[in-house]
Design the sequence.
């Protein structure tokens, strides 16, 4: 079966921003796009119906580390893959588990072979190798599978980052070999995306981009950014990588970021984004809206009966008031977590859709300047 | 404005079960009916859209004690009442706050005047009197307002229960006086229901029923049951009260109970029910289904990909599988709480609707015998 298709529909004349269309066996994804994170097979506090109807998500993420540990592969395989298990029939992308192994596992040890780690749930010991991680993601049934990589922290020494990048490149070769030797698991095409590493060192990033680009994968990811470095460096290295990765393949910037980060990185040539920020911050009372940022816990919203956000096309955001949502958050009602998560996700999806519209209309940069000022404002 | 109307449409020939229709300014309520509990202005973990579309709730409850403390009357009044605040445009019933004052408040002292209590949230001191509680419920904007009563525990001495019942009766007179002297708060009719007390003493229950019946209220409630006594006593005193309360007014049995309790009490002449059981037990992994009771935490559901409940007309219950819901509960995902709550509420609403259908069809008792055996079964 052919890999996913990427049609580059329009490139901005004043920036590197692009509008495109990814076609997978689970449907099409207009780009630029934000992908909500569904860690353990569920975008936290949001139903699949709400994801479709209120958020209008086109693709969601699953975390390999979480899904591998719980519910585990026997359950996912018996279900016929994650799509059938959780009832999400649009595309799914899974990360490689590498990032979670380093950030969540009770302990971990890296060798050439892979990573031995202990589950944060029950302390049980597991081994992830480039090969096993391909098999796991095949079994989960992701439409887009990520290569197994090591993501160095920031700051890190040059020597460490170089060694780590070389390991990631060797692991990529093993990933590609295993991926090529194994079949699509459930009758639809699965696609492998390699990941650029190299920390905050230009020569390493260039080397990594060249290596990744040489693989001619159906899409390419930029990893290892937004891990603690100043935001200017995120932009600097995103720009560098976008300039070196193939133009005719989608570019995925992993784990970024704020709404204004998205807009900036779209202008640098990124097509795909994921981040836990909209859902996590939403559960902590921080709302992103088309008018600016709201701390809904603040007393100033107590008597504000206006809709949460009437500027985005989301029924939930228009139905409930700021005062009601504030009450729900103060009273720690679960419904508050749901409404805040839907608002923030719908806002992110609205924002990438607007960006796409303005790229196609040719006024992306001027729109970006105005909207950035507006949505960054603290209300 | 006229009070709510109750049309008694059909009375079963083999039992005391009735099918009726309550008409309020916020719409009609077919009876028998189960009313989901929306403690602090939200039925926990369920959106108002899901309550309408998936659960098909016809009326929900609010708790006066909770709403009075948070968000508080200034907010509710500024919103234009609870309906406008939470976006629920069907009928709302509020309890009087009495029960929560006794079960939740940090401390409370009962006098003839009313109850002085300390908030469980911040320790602040408040006074509830029959008069203030009428005013509070007027401000909340409930369609059905409950009289302020004292609910004695079980077991309790005869002398205490008699003294408490007499106080509840005197409080009722003060409630009715205040209610009659005050206007509908937001342009639609509000209705006051008195509450029968008298514990588990037949002569007191009879005396209380006679007193309550003499008030010719638009509906009547039976309180003080299901507070720890054996279920046979719940049935015994429900039967006694139903026999003494007016036939042409809806009868509301407060805080009851399991699905089979509902069916038994419907056969004794009860029209309205509320209980936290479907939502609270749902959040603790206990599912009521049309096939029987399920502990969804149990390993036996790990690979069961059949719908949660295909026997009730609820899209959510048919969309998600038992295995997926089990995974969500094990992983403590918020979505699990939402799905389990919707399943249990939709089941309760399906059950009272089925009861109504069979009352009208004339085969209520035989249907009740069969369905009770089925739904009580532990799967």
Sequence:
């Amino acid at each position: 079966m052919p890999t996913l298709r990427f049609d580059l529909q329009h490139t901005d004349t004043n920036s590197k921003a692009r509008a495109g269309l990814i076609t997978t066996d689970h449907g099409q994804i207009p780009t630029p796009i934000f992908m909500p994170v569904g860690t353990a097979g569920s975008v936290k506090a949001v139903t699949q119906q709400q994801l479709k109807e209120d958020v209008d998500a086109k693709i969601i993420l699953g975390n390999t580390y979480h899904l591998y540990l719980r519910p585990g592969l026997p359950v996912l395989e018996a279900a016929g893959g994650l799509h059938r298990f959780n009832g999400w029939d649009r595309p799914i992308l899974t990360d490689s588990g590498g990032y979670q192994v380093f950030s969540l596992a009770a302990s971990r040890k890296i060798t050439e072979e892979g990573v031995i780690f202990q589950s944060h749930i029950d302390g049980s010991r597991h081994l992830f190798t480039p090969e096993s991680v391909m098999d796991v993601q095949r079994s989960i049934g992701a439409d887009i599978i990520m290569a197994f990589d090591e993501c160095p922290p920031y700051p890190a020494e040059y020597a460490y980052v170089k060694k780590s990048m070389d390991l990631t490149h060797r692991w990529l070769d093993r990933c590609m070999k295993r991926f090529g030797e194994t079949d699509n698991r459930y009758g639809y095409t699965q696609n492998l995306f390699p990941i650029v590493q190299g920390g905050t060192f230009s020569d390493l990033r260039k080397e990594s981009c060249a290596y990744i680009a040489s693989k001619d994968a159906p899409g390419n990811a930029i990893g290892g950014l937004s891990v603690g470095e100043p935001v200017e460096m995120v932009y600097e290295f995103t720009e560098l990588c976008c300039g070196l990765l193939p133009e005719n393949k989608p570019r995925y910037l992993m784990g970024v970021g704020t709404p204004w980060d998205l807009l900036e990185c779209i202008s640098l040539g990124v097509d795909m984004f994921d981040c836990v920020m909209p859902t996590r911050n939403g559960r902590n009372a921080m709302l992103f809206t088309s008018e600016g940022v709201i701390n809904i816990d603040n007393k100033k919203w107590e008597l504000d009966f206006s809709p949460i956000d009437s500027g985005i096309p989301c029924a939930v955001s228009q139905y409930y008031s700021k005062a009601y949502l504030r009450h729900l958050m103060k009273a720690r009602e679960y419904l508050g977590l749901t409404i805040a998560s839907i608002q923030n996700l719908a806002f992110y999806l609205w924002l990438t859709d607007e960006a796409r519209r303005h790229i196609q209309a040719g006024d992306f940069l001027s729109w970006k300047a105005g909207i950035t000022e507006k949505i960054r404002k603290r209300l």
